[in-house]
Amino acid sequence: MDYPPNVKLIRVPCSGRVDSVHLIKAFEEGMDGVYVAGCLEGECHFLTGNLRAKKRVEYVKGVLTTLGINPERLRMYNLSAAMGSRFVEIAREMTEMIRSLGPSPVKTGAGREFPQEQEEGEEQ
């Protein structure tokens, strides 16, 4: 099964080892999108690693939003090692979704992808 050649795999013993800093660093280094593939929920070999990874992904999505980067550029998927065809499908879906969003504003220096939300009481 072939997945798109622009997908770079970084293997870790458990998705719970993926730290928020790793995810942010990937965007800093010019990645247009990142996804974390962890065990199915309730089936983590390290018990709660995939749940920790999910929380970190959600946290970093909030950071990306604050920075004006579309949080859809970061996703978490849960699948088993026996779901190779699903992995390839996800890789293709992510590639197409990122292609539709275009290059990361971090890479292009274009600034925010969307306007900053105003705090209540702020004037434009």
Could you explain the architecture of this structure?
By secondary structure, the chain is mainly alpha-helical. It has one domain (15-102). It is built from four helices and two strands, in the order αβαβαα. The protein has helices at residues 20-28, 49-67, 84-101, 105-108; strands spanning 34-38, 74-78. The chain has a two-stranded parallel ribbon with strand order 1-2. The termini are far apart. 23% of the residues are buried. The mean pLDDT is 89.
Structure described in brief:
This protein is mainly α and 124 residues long. It has 4 helices and 2 strands; from the N terminus they run αβαβαα. The chain has one domain.
Distance between the termini: 51 Å
Shape estimate: globular
Radius of gyration: 16 Å
Main sheet characteristics = 2 strands, parallel
Number of domains: 1
Number of strands: 2
Oligomer: single chain
* Biggest sheet strand line-up: 1-2
Structural class call reads mainly alpha
What is the helix tally? 4
Low-confidence stretches: none
Q: Beta-sheet strand percentage? A: 5-15%
**Average predicted local confidence, pLDDT:** 89
Q: Considering DSSP H and I runs of 4 or more, what fraction of the residues is helical?
A: 40-55%
Taken in chain order, the helices and strands follow as: HEHEHH
